[in-house]
Specification:
Layout (H helix, E strand, L loop, with lengths): L1 E10 L7 E11 L3 E6 L6 H8 L7 E6 L2 E2 L5 H11 E4 L11 H6 L6 H14 L4 H4 L8 H13 L5 E5 L7 H14 L4 E6 L10 E6 L2 E7 L3
Parallel strand pairs: 3-8, 3-9, 6-7, 7-8
Antiparallel strand pairs: 1-2, 1-4, 4-5, 9-10
This protein binds adenosine-5'-diphosphate and magnesium ion.
Length: about 220
């Protein structure tokens, strides 16, 4: 799905002290499956994800998405790609505090009205939220429930690629595993890229990419 060629990202280009967040490496990601990106804080994981998902443009190198170069796209085309084909889950849920679960899921959905609402309700229920939780605002939900709402929102437009940056970092272990089960299930038909510095949640990854100091230090099939 992704072909990354000699990707380089330098922050603070104009400063004397340049930060090589990505040091120039190649990497291919498959069309579906759970890909884990693991490595210590500051190793470049988020930067890589931002580049893959078009939120950032690398300083040098190229990223092909289904054979098409992402780096040459106009901002409008990048936006369309993010809206139609990519989904995002972050460590923080970024839910709208005054909206209930269903509204938080439908807020950025393509399509209109009842159909969208029905799909949101189905999705939330399939992710384990009960009837009562559907009408609650984020403040009345547990951390795990909030993250499920955030995942439902990310899945609403049936993205071909789901990017998750430290999605379980704010959760206890049991809840973290439940969230990973959901992502693993979605990865049966889609590509799911999960960034973490916690090995234990990636037992079931199909591909493990290890990062160190802006470089990929190893790529292994299967989990850890
Ligand atoms: N917006 C930014 N401006 C300057 N430096 C940054 C910025 N974002 C990240 N960095 C630096 O780039 C490196 C990689 O960061 P990041 O991709 O966030 O790593 P990770 O997600 O693995 O913690 C780090 O040295 C970090 O300090
Ligand atoms: Mg990060």
């Amino acid at each position: 799905m992704f072909e990354i060629k000699n990707i380089t990202m330098i922050y603070d280009m104009e400063k004397e002290e340049k930060v090589y967040a990505l040091g120039g490496f190649d990497l291919n990601l498959p069309d579906k499956g759970l890909v884990g990106i693991i490595g210590p804080s500051g190793s470049g994981k988020s930067t890589l994800m931002y580049c893959l998902s078009t939120l950032k443009t690398p300083t040098a190198g190229e990223i092909l998405y289904n054979g098409k170069s992402l780096t040459g796209l106009k901002e409008q085309e990048r936006e369309k790609l993010r809206r139609d084909e990519f989904g995002f889950v972050f460590q923080r849920h970024f839910l709208v505090p005054y909206m209930n679960s269903v509204s938080n899921v439908t807020v950025a959905a393509n399509g209109k009205g009842e159909e969208v609402k029905t799909r949101a309700v189905e999705l939330l229920k399939s992710l384990g939220l009960g009837e009562k939780e559907l009408k609650k605002r984020p403040g009345k939900l547990s951390g795990g429930q909030r993250q499920r709402v955030a995942i439902a929102r990310a899945m609403m437009n049936a993205p071909k690629v789901l990017f998750a940056d430290e999605p379980t970092a704010a959760l206890d272990h049991e809840t973290a595993f439940a969230v990973m089960d959901i992502l693993k299930e979605y990865a049966k038909e889609n590509l799911v890229v999960v960034i973490t510095h916690d090995h234990s949640i990636l037992k079931e990854a199909d591909l493990m990419v290890e990062m160190w100091d802006g470089m990929v230090s190893s790529v292994k099939e299967g989990g850890v």
